[in-house]
């Protein structure tokens, strides 16, 4: 049995506005045993003095694409699978060093990557993966250039992050196959997007029957569907047919937000990816059509968060960064800081995302019985959210499953 006592720290528990001052957190093996006043440490525990630093749950990014080796997703299809996997390992390791102890992959990752992190083959976060995202032909997951692949069987296309499935039966089969291979949730493409070469953003994708087929199959496995959807119309269709998690949602309206709130569903905005693509996308191979699409959704991104907050929607935290842009991950905090309070943002990245992952009480909190996924930072992010945007300066320790993966405290 391993016992660690983290002493003399300020604790944000993942949800409360009350900060526990001068506290001690006891870790037994890979779980939190006790949260109490400083000085209450077992005799046999290894005592670590945090000297007033800030302790909080490990961060959760609920929308990543660790296998997106290239910013241009059509070009990503041409990257050999082994190379994509190697790049994914590096991406996951870098995320952990930025304080993200859990990731939800929105298309591309698989059981092997999740197992590699779980067993310590790589030093990465917990990975909740969707397998290949499901898309209709000509939808957001169809990365084939319009001048190529004339005729033939669309169902034969399986890209770096997605696969095609048309019709209720094909969607059921594809969802069952991803679940068979261990997917922790199913991802569908329910509207147009910026990264795909042929579909307008406002385009509604998948019929309601197809959406329901994916939802029904996910529910059989006691899990859920996450859906790429930008517009109010696309969001309403998804919620009506049982989708639990809406991704992006930049063009949401008040009516769609009310529908989300009434269904107790979630939205995961990903604002940082639009800033990164606007600044670096063209130089990294993003085509002109996609750059124009990015401008269309970036302008309304902030307003979408305000609409959802005012409607009482569950707002998660995601980034959706591709290829070499993944180093922007922590900047999502300061972008959201323009419209949300630090506590609202911290909850999104911890307890709210834990509930979305169906791991409430185990992840995203500092409480007895929770998994010991924790970070230690300089300063108080409940007052200055920008602290988390600079992990290279302010992140003192990263603990996942009771083990230190970054330690600038005892190694100082």
What does this structure look like?
It is a single chain. This protein has 412 residues and is α/β, with parallel strands linked by helices. The protein folds into two domains: 3-58 and 364-407, Urease, subunit C, domain 1 (Roll), CATH 2.30.40.10; 59-356, TIM Barrel, CATH 3.20.20.140. Helices cover 32% and strands 23% of the residues. The strands form four sheets. Strands 1, 2, 3, 4, 5, 16, 17 and 18 form an eight-stranded mixed β-sheet that branches. It has a five-stranded parallel β-sheet with strand order 11-12-13-14-15. A three-stranded parallel β-sheet has the order 6-7-8. Strand 7 (100-105), helix 3 (111-118) and strand 8 form a beta-alpha-beta unit. Helix 4 (168-180) runs parallel beside helix 5 (208-220), helix 6 (232-240) runs parallel beside helix 7 (254-262) and helix 8 runs antiparallel to helix 9. The model has no long low-confidence stretch (mean pLDDT 93).
Question: What tags apply to this protein structure?
Answer:
single chain; 412 residues; alpha/beta; Urease, subunit C, domain 1; TIM Barrel; 2 domains; eight-stranded mixed beta sheet; five-stranded parallel beta sheet; 13 helices; globular
């Amino acid at each position: 049995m391993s016992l660690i006592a983290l002493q003399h720290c300020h604790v944000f528990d993942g949800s409360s506005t009350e900060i526990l001052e001068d506290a001690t957190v006891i870790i037994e093996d890979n779980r939190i045993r006790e949260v109490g006043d400083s000085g209450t440490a077992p005799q046999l525990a290894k005592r670590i003095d945090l000297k007033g630093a800030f302790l909080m749950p490990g961060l959760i990014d609920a929308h990543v694409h660790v296998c997106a080796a290239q910013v241009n997703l059509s070009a990503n299809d041409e990257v050999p699978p082994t190379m994509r996997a190697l790049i994914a390992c590096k991406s996951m390791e870098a995320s952990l060093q930025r304080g993200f102890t859990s990731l939800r992959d929105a298309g591309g990752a698989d059981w092997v990557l999740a197992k590699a992190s779980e067993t310590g083959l790589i030093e990465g976060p917990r990975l909740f993966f969707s397998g290949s995202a499901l898309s209709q032909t000509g939808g957001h997951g169809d990365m084939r250039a319009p001048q190529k692949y004339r005729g033939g069987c669309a169902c034969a296309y399986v890209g770096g992050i997605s696969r095609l499935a048309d019709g209720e039966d094909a969607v059921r089969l594809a969802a069952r196959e991803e679940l068979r291979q261990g997917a922790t949730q199913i991802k569908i493409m329910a509207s147009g997007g910026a990264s795909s070469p042929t579909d307008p953003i406002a385009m509604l994708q998948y019929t309601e029957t197809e959406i329901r087929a994916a939802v029904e199959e996910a529910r059989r496995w006691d899990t859920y569907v996450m859906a790429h959807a930008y517009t109010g119309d696309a969001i309403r269709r998804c919620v009506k047919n049982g989708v639990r998690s809406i991704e992006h949602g930049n063009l949401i309206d008040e009516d769609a937000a009310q529908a989300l709130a009434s269904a107790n569903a979630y939205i995961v905005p990903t604002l940082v990816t639009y800033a990164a693509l606007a600044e670096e996308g063209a130089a990294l191979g993003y085509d002109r059509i996609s750059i124009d699409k990015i401008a269309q959704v970036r302008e309304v991104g902030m307003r979408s968060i305000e609409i959802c907050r005012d409607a009482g929607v569950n707002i998660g935290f995601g980034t959706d960064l591709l290829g070499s842009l993944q180093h922007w991950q922590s900047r999502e905090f300061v972008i959201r800081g323009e419209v949300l309070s630090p506590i609202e943002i911290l909850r999104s990245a911890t307890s709210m995302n834990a509930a979305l992952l169906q791991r409430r009480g185990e992840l995203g909190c500092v409480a007895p019985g929770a998994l010991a996924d924790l970070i230690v930072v300089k300063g108080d992010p409940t007052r200055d959210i920008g602290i988390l945007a600079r992990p290279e300066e302010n992140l003192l320790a990263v603990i996942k499953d009771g083990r230190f993966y970054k330690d600038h405290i005892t190694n100082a």
